[in-house]
Backbone:
């Protein structure tokens, strides 16, 4: 199972006997799975079933699902004739006509127009009967959304892979400059000591100790080793399956921690600019990782 983005859209339909069930699914990134359902009033009984279906497709993210139904609902309508009430209306009209000496005929249309003579009753949907069609529409919508999420994740993986290559290239440049930086600092220390001491001979042992202190403060070997290990882990996660978004986000934090440590150890203008480039690349990667499930 390939990586998936948390952003997607899907639509599904199912039709039978002149009625169509339409499902729309929209998903965006979120730390946890947050599924929101909007169903017709009579369909609340299937909400738990639909929620479980959503959970089968989405492990994280905000998911909004809308279910609607259109078409012919005549099978859900019952019409009842209140014959007793109609007879009462007729008798009353005949009495009124007699009293007023009117000869207007009493028609069926006239009686049907009186309140409650013809009663229209809306029946509830038999959910068990239509459930297969609801499931079909929901599945189609989730499948379509899943395809979009997979495609977007592929684009994210491509972008992250390219940024990781760029990050590694800058890291290589930093590593190459460390020996020159140490040599430059050693020469700088030597020059400062000569100016301070004048003609007084330098103690080679003391100078070696100072140089060792400088080298130790500037040594970023451990950070470089850990960063290269993180790069390998990151590459492996991009090729993995399942929900790795949180792991990638955590790993980005570890990247930033090591880069910040390196920046604090290396007090050099040129390398400082490279550290900024590394941090900038990591921030862009972090933004992309936020969209991976």
Residues:
């Amino acid at each position: 199972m390939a990586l998936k983005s948390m952003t997607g859209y899907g639509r599904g339909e199912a039709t039978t006997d002149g009625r169509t069930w339409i499902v729309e699914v929209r998903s965006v990134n979120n730390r946890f799975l947050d599924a929101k359902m909007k169903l017709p009033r009579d369909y609340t009984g299937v909400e738990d079933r639909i929620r479980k279906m959503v959970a089968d497709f989405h492990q994280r993210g905000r998911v909004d699902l809308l279910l609607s139904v259109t078409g012919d609902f005549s099978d859900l309508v019952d019409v009842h004739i209140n014959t007793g009430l109609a007879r009462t209306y007729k008798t009353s009209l005949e009495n009124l006509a007699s009293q007023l000496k009117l000869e207007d005929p009493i028609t069926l249309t006239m009686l049907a127009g009186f309140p409650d003579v013809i009663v229209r009753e809306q029946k509830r949907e038999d959910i068990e009967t239509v459930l297969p069609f609801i499931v079909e529409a929901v599945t189609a919508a989730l499948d379509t959304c899943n395809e979009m999420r997979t495609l977007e994740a592929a684009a994210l993986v491509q972008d992250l892979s390219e940024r990781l290559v760029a990050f590694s290239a800058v890291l290589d440049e930093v590593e190459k400059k460390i020996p020159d930086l140490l040599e430059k600092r050693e020469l700088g220390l030597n020059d400062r000591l000569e100016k301070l001491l004048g003609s007084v001979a330098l103690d080679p042992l003391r100078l070696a100790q100072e140089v060792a202190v400088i080298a130790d403060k500037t040594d970023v070997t451990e950070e470089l080793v850990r960063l290269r290990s993180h790069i390998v882990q990151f590459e492996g996660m991009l090729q993995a399956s399942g929900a790795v978004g949180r792991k990638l986000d955590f790993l980005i934090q570890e990247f930033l921690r090591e880069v910040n440590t390196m920046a604090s150890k290396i007090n050099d203008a040129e390398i400082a600019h490279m550290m900024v480039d590394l941090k900038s690349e990591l921030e862009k990667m972090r933004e992309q990782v936020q969209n991976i499930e």
About this structure: Strands lie at 8-16, 19-28, 33-38, 61-71, 77-81, 118-122. The longest strand covers residues 61-71.
